[in-house]
Amino acid sequence: MTTIRPLLVLTIAITAIWGSALPAGASPTPAPTTTSVLARDYLRAHPGGVLRAGNEVVYPDGSGFVAGDIGTKSLGECASGRFCMWSSASYTGSFTYVTGSGVTKPLTQTVRSFWNNRSQAARLYDNAGTSSTCYGAGVKKSAVAVSYQSPAKVLLASGASC
After folding, report:
1. What pTM value is reported for the model?
2. Which of 3, 29, 84, 159 lies 20 to 30 Å (CA to CA) from residue 12?
């Protein structure tokens, strides 16, 4: 019995201290997650989007950024109808995507792998924006050539060919 009393006293003391730090009925606010901080930082640097689900920034033009720790994103993040890009090879790293049909989207991020998870073709332009390669629907590239790792833009075609 004597070993239980000190534990009970310690528990009561901790409860009293913790309880006095918060207003009645309040619960502690969880610290922001790394992904939500990354998403908010991205939104500050690229205004005009809306933060959704704590880690996804969505823009009116259909583009988006999904914050996550390096290596946490995968092919499973790329929903149908998106041209998805990762900052590292093998579909890892920071994850961004664009959507649309018959439109050209400027790009500002590093692209080391991508998946055209659309039913139409996409044309990716090189770093200088002077050369391009057409990729058919569903094409995946786990490693991108150096000249395309900072692509200028992507054309999201409205048909099967560029």
Report:
1. 0.65
2. 29
